[in-house]
Specification:
It is a single chain. This protein is α/β, with parallel strands linked by helices. The longest helix is centred in the middle third of the chain and has 22 residues.
């Protein structure tokens, strides 16, 4: 299936024109004419990229960008007629991947979309870690297998990455605490055990039944090992 682009643009003729050019380039599109609802749409549909106008009725583009970055690294290209440098810098600092000033050529926007998606795919390949049946995505804190994909919390992801980084190595609970808590907070062994239990439960969603990857070592800690690999 082709990649989907979300266009958030209150100028309906311009949005339709962009949609036509993007469809001709092989993308699927969805248009929203106001900011309200854009964040929820991104959360639900996970588009490949968002074309986001800065000045919108309802929620403005900067606020949308800020809120989306709270849960997603979806590429965002901001479009606007406001060309002041402070707006340009603010948009990029909030996590926008590119910035296009109006008036613009729809062909230029399509070229920018292609460039940002190429760069994003290359970055995802570089940030991916493969361990047995698992593929870890550092940018999105997600784990994929042939059966599906799950979203982990930051702590769950750090725990899994620490274990898969050295298959077969036994990690003590204290060592795992150091790996997953940057502030070196003091937590009990039961906290690590609880995180491991939750992580195992999440992995069962995308692994065959009875396939165990995180093994307990009695009295010591845990290790990652794929017995079927």
């Amino acid at each position: 299936m082709s990649e989907q682009i979300l266009i958030v643009e209150d100028e309906t003729r311009l949005a339709a024109l962009l949609a036509d050019y993007l469809k001709a380039a092989g993308y699927r599109t969805h248009c929203l004419a106001e900011g309200n609802g854009a964040v929820e749409w991104v959360r639900e549909h996970e588009p490949a990229l968002v074309l986001l106008d800065l000045m919108l009725p309802g929620t403005d583009g900067l606020d949308i960008c800020r809120r989306v970055r709270g849960f997603s690294q979806v590429p965002i290209i901001m479009t606007t007629a406001r060309v002041e440098e402070i707006d340009r810098l603010l948009g990029l600092e909030l996590g926008a991947d590119d910035y296009v000033c109006k008036p613009y050529s729809p062909r230029e926007v399509v070229a920018r979309v292609r460039a940002v998606l190429r760069r994003t795919r290359a970055e995802q390949v570089r940030s991916a870690v493969t361990a047995g049946p698992l593929a870890l995505d550092d940018d999105r804190l997600r784990v994929r297998t042939a059966s599906g994909e799950i979203q982990l919390t930051a702590v769950e992801y750090a725990l899994l990455k620490a274990l898969v980084g050295t298959p077969g190595k036994i990690f003590s609970r204290a060592r795992l605490m150091d790996r997953i808590y940057d502030d070196h907070r003091v937590v009990s062994d039961r906290t690590i055990d609880s995180h491991v239990k939750k992580l195992r439960r999440r992995l069962t969603e995308i692994l065959p039944p009875d396939r165990e990857l995180i093994h307990s070592v009695y009295g010591v800690g845990y290790r990652y090992e794929d017995m079927e690999g």
